[in-house]
Design goal:
Layout lengths: L2 E3 L4 E8 L11 H10 E8 L6 H6 L5 H15 L3 E4 L15 E2 L2 E3 L3 E4 L5 E4 L7 H5 L1 H27 L7 H11 L3 H11 L4 E4 L6 E5 L2 E5 L8 E5 L5 E8 L2 E5 L11 H11 L3
Parallel strand pairs: 2-3, 3-4, 4-6, 8-9, 9-11
Antiparallel strand pairs: 1-14, 2-12, 5-6, 7-8, 10-11, 12-13, 13-14
Helix pairs in contact: 1-3, 5-6
Length: 279
C-alpha cells in the first residue's frame, strides 16, 4: 500500500470510526487525534466500542490523550457536525440512553446512512450478530482478556522484531479473529442487510478493516484504533475510502483489507465445540 503525506485539513462528507477503546492502554489516542486534525466530517458515526467500559470496570485508565479525543469530537459537534454514537458491547452501558443527546452527540441503536448517490447503508456495531456475544458472553469476555494480553505481548515482541529489522506481526489479531470466526460474522451481517433491504452495511467489532462488494452488497468494516488505526471516509463524490493512519501526518490508502486474516484458525474448532456445549 503506498504511503503519502496528508496535505492540510480535508473536509469530507462522512467519517466512520469504530473500536477506539478509550480507557485501555492499547488505545492509540495520539494517532486518532492526529487523524482528526486532518479530517473533518459533516457527519460522524461512532460505530461502537468507543469507550471500553469492560476495562474501566476492572482497572481505571484514562490519560489526558483520551480526554483530548472526547473534547475533539465534542468540538466538531459544536462546529456543526452531526455526530451519532452507536454503542457496542464494550460501551453497552450507553444502550440505556437511546435518543439522548450528550454535548451534541446523539446515541442511537443503529442508523441508515444515505450516500450521495442515494444508496442506503445499515450502520451498526455488529456485536449482536456475533454468536460468541449472543450465546456465550463468558466466552467473549475470555477472548477479550486474551486480546488484552496479546496486545501487551505484541508491544514487547515487535520491539525485538524491529531491532532485528523484521516486519510487524500481530498475535492479537489472530486471537481476535479466533473468537469472532465462530460467529460467521461477515456473512451474518450481510444476511441482515439484505433482510432490511439496504445496499450495504457499515460496522466494526471484529477489528478487521475492509471495504468490499459481496455479491452486490457493499460490506464495510471500520477497523479499530488499537492496532490498525483505520477509519472509513465518504467523500463528496460518494466514494468510500479506507484510511490507515500510520504515523503523524501520514496515511495509507487501502482498497483491499488492511489485515488479511486466515479464515480458518486451529482454535476455531475448540471454540465451536465450547459454543455447542452452551446451547
Amino acid at each position: 500500500m503506498p504511503e503519502r503525506p496528508s496535505t492540510g485539513r480535508r473536509r469530507v462528507r462522512t467519517l466512520f470510526l469504530s473500536d477506539i477503546h478509550l480507557g485501555t492502554r492499547g488505545c492509540q489516542a495520539d494517532r486518532l487525534l492526529d487523524f482528526l486534525r486532518h479530517y473533518e466530517g459533516e457527519t460522524i458515526y461512532l460505530v461502537g466500542d468507543i469507550v471500553d467500559g469492560w476495562q474501566l470496570k476492572s482497572a481505571w485508565c484514562w490519560p489526558q490523550l483520551h480526554n483530548d479525543v472526547v473534547q475533539k469530537l465534542l468540538r466538531q459537534a459544536r462546529k456543526g457536525a452531526r455526530l451519532f454514537y452507536i454503542p457496542g458491547n464494550h460501551d453497552e452501558f450507553l444502550r440505556d440512553y437511546y435518543g439522548t443527546h450528550f454535548g451534541g452527540i446523539e446515541v442511537v441503536e443503529n442508523a441508515v446512512h444515505v450516500g450521495i448517490n442515494g444508496k442506503r447503508y445499515l450502520v451498526i456495531h455488529g456485536d449482536l450478530f456475533d454468536v460468541a456475544i449472543r450465546h456465550a458472553p463468558w466466552l467473549a469476555r475470555l477472548g477479550d482478556n486474551a486480546y488484552e494480553i496479546a496486545i501487551w505481548l505484541n508491544t514487547h515482541c515487535n520491539a525485538v522484531r524491529r531491532a532485528f529489522g523484521l516486519t510487524y506481526w500481530s498475535l492479537s489479531l489472530k486471537v481476535k479473529n479466533a473468537v469472532n470466526f465462530i460467529g460467521a460474522y461477515e456473512r451474518t451481517l450481510a444476511v441482515e442487510a439484505r433482510r432490511r433491504g439496504v445496499d450495504g452495511v457499515i460496522c466494526g467489532h471484529i477489528h478487521h478493516a475492509v471495504i468490499r462488494d459481496d455479491d452486490g452488497l457493499c460490506y464495510i468494516n471500520c477497523g479499530d484504533w488499537v492496532e490498525s488505526c483505520t477509519a472509513v471516509v465518504e467523500h463528496f463524490d460518494g466514494k468510500f475510502e479506507l484510511v490507515r493512519w500510520t504515523e503523524p501526518g501520514r496515511r495509507t490508502l487501502a482498497a483491499e483489507p488492511v489485515h488479511t486474516l486466515a479464515r480458518q484458525w486451529e482454535a476455531g474448532t475448540f471454540l465451536q465445540e465450547a459454543m455447542a456445549g452452551t446451547t
